Structure prediction request, 299 residues.
Amino acid sequence: MDNNRIKIAIQKSGRLTEHTISLLKKCGLIISHTRNHLIGYGENMPFDLMFVRDDDIPGLVQDNLCTLGIVGMNEALEKKIEIENLEKAPANFEIVSNLDFGQCKLSFAYPDDSTYQDLKNLEGKTVATSYPNIVSDYISKAGLNISVTQFSGAVELAPSLGKADLICDLVSSGQTLKAHNLTEGQTILESTAVVIKSLQAMDSIEETWVNKLIERIQGVLQVKESKYIMMHAPRASIDSITNLLPGTESPTIIPLEGTNETVALHVVCKENVFWETLEDLKAKGASSILVVPVEKMLM
Ligand code: ATP
Ligand code: ZN
Prediction:
């Protein structure tokens, strides 16, 4: 492997893989795969992708074997707390961007027939989880006396196997919990996929590329909801019209031939625009309203 190339750790095969590759492609990266699929080479930028298990991603960035990683916040935080507890020093990576996929939550869940459905009254009970560091941290900060036991898979089975009184696990739809006769309780983390970056010093070329990619990722996220809006508007209503549009910067005002009262107003709106908003604009005197999608954005 070429050491001048910047390595990004991504999930080899799982819930994050497709979204991650699609995001990197939208950032302009052209990826060619090797046959064994463990490494993807960036053809037009100095990035190479390491396809690994998601659990290994934070560790690879921590050890500076990869400069960047795309992983669930749950995995990133679990590793961060583990390192900080073990080494009594801050982890060697940071979260630089929250992404718009991989949504899930880490929640407690109780057996349907248990007498407790709340974290209170759990004195001396045991919780099974794959996230012992996040859960222990939460329990100690909340001043609770609950023991934590680590389960690597099938955490939902722990109560029926008699290994725990409750669990703390990732949920998205709640179907898995229901199938195991568990009821969801408190959520301790709302997670999405995130970009993590090594805190190791980089040379300036590497740093420029890393920053460029992070900036493009943020641009891709912004563009999804953004719209370019054009309309004719009474000059007197410019302020009240721009106030109706969420997330806009100063509008561009263009004079119209043959009138001083009406102008053309163009604006980039960083949130989705609904029919109700267009109706409100019309009520303020706007006409010929056009809403067009934004393809790329660099702020
Ligand atoms: P690997 O083989 O890479 O270890 P895995 O089975 O641990 O895969 P996946 O199930 O693919 O991991 O989940 C990857 C990430 O997707 C999770 O860490 C989490 O951030 C996110 N995620 C989103 N929804 C869910 C869900 N319903 N259950 C579990 N994880 C979810
Ligand atoms: Zn995993």
In short: The chain has a mean pLDDT of 93. The two ends are 34 Å apart (CA to CA). The pocket of adenosine-5'-triphosphate (ligand 1) is lined by residues 11, 14-16, 53-55, 72, 74-75, 102, 104, 170, 172, 191 (CB under 6 Å). DSSP finds eight helices and 16 strands in the chain.
